[in-house]
Amino acid sequence: MATATETSTAPPTFAENHMNDVPSSLPSTSNPYQAAREALDRDGFVVLPASLFPTFDLASLRDAASTLTASARSGKWPYIRTLPKQFPPWPSKPGEHGIWGVQHLMHPLNPSHATFARSYFDAELLKYVSVLIGCSEEDLTMELYNMLVRPDGEFALRWHRDDIPPEASDVEELERLGKPGFHAQWNLALYDDASLVVVPGSHKRARTSFERSADPYEPNMPGQLVVKLQAGEVAFYNNNILHRGVYDPTKERMTLHGSIGTTLGSSERARNVLQHGVGAWAKEYDFEDFEPAMRERARAMREALVEMGKSSGEVGFYSKDE
Ligand SMILES: O=C(O)CCC(=O)C(=O)O
After folding, report:
1. What distances in angstroms separate CA 64 from CA 82, 97, 138, 190, one per listed residue?
2. Ligand 1: which of 83, 221, 243 to mutate, judged by most atoms within 8 Å of the beta carbon?
3. Tens of pLDDT along 64-80?
4. Per the structure, how many domains does the chain have?
5. What is the mean pLDDT of residues 180-192?
6. Is residue 145 within 8 Å of 107, Cβ to Cβ?
7. Using 50, 70 and 90 to split pLDDT, how confident is the model at 26?
8. What is the whole-number distance in angstroms between the Cα of residue 22 and the centre of ligand 1?
9. Looking at residues 189-209, what average pLDDT do you find?
10. 95 near 271, Cβ under 8 Å?
11. Which residue windows does the record flag with biased composition (Low complexity) (predicted)?
12. Quick check: is 254 in a domain?
């Protein structure tokens, strides 16, 4: 029989070892995918520890991200988000104010496209994505993979919901929020990152009168929470949660910003995805240099994106910039 001393010196169990990996927002259930979904449904965001994604190769991702960011800042990589513009379309040159994002990480013209694609089509990530969307892995659609970087000067994003304009009435907001999102969106931090600010729970309700009349850059929205990510952590968030970005131009930021959809909702997602221009190159992408299982997954998801492009016609831009 074990004595008290023996018990206290026994090696920690797996659960004890990983207790601090799990952010407090994750409910205690034995199924981690379901736990993530419950937290996302409840709070509108969920942070997953780096330990859940052992195949993410942070060193290679940082290398690839630094090279592409340098190319974007110098005007060589044309797919960028420029200051002071919050929404697409963005110009292809940084101009005098510089950039805050790099678009199309998986574009075949990027010499490191496969490094980024390996993290986007990662088997474990796709399992989370399919549970969070509520579809099977066969129904997943390739969407966007971009990167949010340290802005070249002072910059912040206004409070917004990605897919609901600020002019929407309470009724319109609630109607849209009541519909399924048909995609999952995430930030994967390559360096510690505290730029995303959310109002937890706001993905399930219309804006309060305070939120509605607040300054677009209100620094203290009631209930706001800064989503703090350590390098390697992944935050999934509902793109219609009330959120903004607050950036520190002196601190390195390279956060991969991805979304994956489902064939069950391609018409709803078409404008959101295609306005970023991914349709122009995705059909040329062959994934030849991938290992076979990943190649098959990537091809199927790419085909679903190409189909979405064919059936949606001209989608235009949903530009909320003044
Ligand atoms: O910087 C971030 O993490 C937020 C980005 C964002 O809100 C957006 O692109 O709409």
Report:
1. 20, 24, 29, 11
2. 243
3. 999 999 999 999 999 99
4. 1
5. 97
6. no
7. low
8. 24
9. 98
10. no
11. 1-16
12. yes
Q: Which residues line ligand 1 (CB under 6 A)?
A: 148, 157, 162, 187, 195-196, 243, 245
Range of the domain at 296: 45-312
Over residues 213-221, mean pLDDT? 98
Write the residue with the smallest CA distance to atom 1 of ligand 1: 245
Instruction: Give the per-residue pLDDT at 235.
Output: 98
Q: In this structure, is residue 40 part of a structural domain?
A: no
Question: Which CATH number is 90's domain given?
Answer: 2.60.120.620
> If you take atom 3 of ligand 1, which residue's CA is the nearest one?
196
Tokens 């349709």 belong to residue: 279
Residues 187 and 228: their CA atoms lie apart, in Å, by: 11
Tens of pLDDT along 135-155? Answer: 999 999 999 999 999 999 999
88: in domain: yes
107: in domain: yes
State the Cα–Cα distance between residues 206 and 153, nearest whole angstrom: 33
In the structure encoding, which two tokens stand for residue 38, read together?
Answer: 């419950």
CA of 101 to the centre of ligand 1 (A): 10
Distance 196 CA to ligand 1 centre (A): 7
